[in-house]
Q: What sequence folds into this?
C-alpha cells in the first residue's frame, strides 16, 4: 500500500475516527445569476477525479488527518433567488451536522455564494455551543479570503457572500488577498473598507493570526489564468500556486481557523485537467498544515522539517 493514493483511504461509509470532512458544494446558480461562465457545479466531481490520481497516502515526515467524504449538497430545483436561498439552507444544515460529528469542514465548490451558507453554519454552530441557545449569532468571527474580487455585491449571486457575512452573520472583519483593482468598483471598495475590510499582503511571512475564530475561503480565480484556466472568471495577472500553497499550509496549521473552502473551480473551462490538479494541490497544502496543527496539539513530530510543500526550497 506504500504507493496508494491518499484518496483510496478516504472514508465513504462512516465518519468514525475522521478529523476532516469534504463537502461538495455542487451548484453554480449564483454564477449564472451574475451572468458568469456556468460549470462550477461540476467542480466537486472533477476535484474528486483529480484527487484520485494525486497525493500519496504515506508521505515522509507526517501523517495525514483521516478524511470523510460527506458527498455533495443536492441543489434545490429552480433558477431564482428562492432556489438559491433554499440550497443555501441545505448547506448550512450539512455543515452543522459535520461539526456535530467532531470533524473540520472543507467545502469544494461551486459558486462563491456558497461560502455564505457554509461559513454561516460554522458561525451558528459555534455560537450555539458557546451560549447553549440554538440560532444565536457570533460576533467574534473574522474572515480571510483569497480572491481577485471583493464579492460584496448587494445583488443576489456569486458575488454576494462577504457582504452578507458582515451584515447578516456578525463577521467582524475581512482580509482579502490577491485583490485586483481593475475588477472591483469604487462603490464596492468603499463599502469593504467602511465595514471592517482590509487588504492583505502577498507574502505568507506577513501572516498574523486574528487570535479569534476565523474562516478561510479560496477562490480559484485568484490564480493566474496560466495556472488556473478552469474558473468562472479568468484572472490575467493572478497569483502562482506556489505562493498560494504557502498561505494555505500556514492557515491549515492555525487552530483559530475553523473551516476552509475552495471555490469557483469550473471544469467546463479547464485545460488538460490543469486547474483540477492545482485545486487538489492546494487542498493537500491546507491538509499538510492541518496535520501540523494536530501534531502540535498532541506534541508529536509535525513534519515541518520534512520535504514538504513549505521546505522544498527555491524562490517564492
A:
Amino acid at each position: 500500500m506504500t504507493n496508494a493514493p491518499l484518496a483510496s483511504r478516504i472514508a465513504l461509509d462512516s465518519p468514525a475516527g475522521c478529523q476532516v470532512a469534504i463537502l461538495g458544494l455542487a451548484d453554480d446558480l449564483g454564477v449564472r445569476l451574475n451572468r458568469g461562465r456556468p460549470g462550477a457545479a461540476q467542480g466537486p466531481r472533477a476535484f474528486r477525479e483529480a484527487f484520485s490520481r494525486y497525493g500519496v497516502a504515506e508521505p515522509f515526515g507526517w501523517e495525514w488527518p483521516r478524511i470523510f467524504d460527506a458527498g455533495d449538497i443536492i441543489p434545490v430545483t429552480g433558477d431564482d433567488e428562492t432556489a438559491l436561498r433554499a440550497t443555501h439552507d441545505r448547506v448550512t444544515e450539512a455543515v452543522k451536522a459535520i461539526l456535530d460529528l467532531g470533524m473540520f469542514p472543507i467545502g469544494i465548490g461551486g459558486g462563491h455564494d456558497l461560502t455564505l451558507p457554509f461559513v454561516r453554519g460554522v458561525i451558528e454552530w459555534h455560537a450555539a455551543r458557546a451560549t447553549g441557545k440554538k440560532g444565536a449569532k457570533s460576533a467574534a468571527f473574522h474572515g480571510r479570503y483569497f480572491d481577485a474580487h471583493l464579492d460584496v455585491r448587494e445583488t443576489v449571486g456569486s458575488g454576494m457572500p462577504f457582504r452578507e457575512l458582515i451584515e447578516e452573520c456578525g463577521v467582524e472583519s475581512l482580509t482579502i488577498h490577491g485583490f485586483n483593482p481593475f475588477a472591483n468598483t469604487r462603490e464596492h471598495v468603499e463599502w469593504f473598507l467602511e465595514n471592517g475590510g482590509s487588504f492583505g499582503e502577498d507574502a505568507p511571512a506577513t501572516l498574523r493570526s486574528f487570535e479569534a475564530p476565523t474562516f478561510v475561503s479560496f477562490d480559484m480565480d485568484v490564480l493566474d489564468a496560466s495556472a488556473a484556466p478552469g474558473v468562472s472568471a479568468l484572472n490575467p495577472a493572478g497569483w502562482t500556486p506556489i505562493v498560494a500553497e504557502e498561505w494555505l499550509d500556514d492557515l491549515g496549521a492555525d487552530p483559530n481557523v475553523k473551516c476552509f473552502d475552495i471555490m469557483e473551480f469550473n471544469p467546463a473551462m479547464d485545460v488538460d485537467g490543469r486547474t483540477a490538479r492545482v485545486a487538489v494541490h492546494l487542498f493537500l497544502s491546507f491538509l499538510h498544515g492541518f496535520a501540523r496543527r494536530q501534531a502540535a496539539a498532541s506534541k508529536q513530530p509535525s513534519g515541518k522539517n520534512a520535504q514538504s510543500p513549505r521546505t522544498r526550497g527555491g524562490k517564492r
Remarks:
- DSSP finds eight helices and eight strands in the chain.
- Strands lie at 20-25, 67-72, 104-109, 142-146, 173-177, 197-199, 214-219, 257-263.
- Confidence is low (pLDDT under 50) at residues 305-309, 311-316.
- Helices lie at 29-33, 43-51, 81-100, 115-131, 161-167, 186-194, 241-253, 274-298.
